[in-house]
Design a protein that fits this description.
By secondary structure, the chain is mainly α. 51% of the residues lie in helices and 8% in strands. It contains five helices and two strands; from the N terminus they run ααααββα. The protein is globular.
Length: 83
């Protein structure tokens, strides 16, 4: 696997818009600052893609990625489960 070149935030916005991800510019800007692109989208996008070639989302919102990211970061300790 090759090392990917970094992209500007405007480049990332264009990439996500071309994949039909639904977002407000200001919300995406905040999410990229808080989580960064790699932590927010990589690994999660494959379960939300409706098509992989080209990568396309169908009725997927930025909030969907954030909700999954937040859920995945919940730590369950001492055998307790969140329901």
């Amino acid at each position: 696997m090759s090392i990917k070149q970094s992209e500007s935030r405007s480049g990332l916005k264009s990439k996500l818009a071309s994949r039909n991800l639904e977002f407000e510019d200001s919300e995406l800007e905040e999410a990229l600052k808080k989580y960064n692109y790699f932590n927010l989208f990589n690994g999660i996008e494959s379960i939300l893609l409706s098509k992989t070639n080209p990568k396309t989302f169908n009725k997927v919102k930025l909030d969907d990625f954030i909700a999954i990211r937040v859920f995945n970061s919940i730590k369950i300790t001492d055998g307790e489960y969140l329901i």
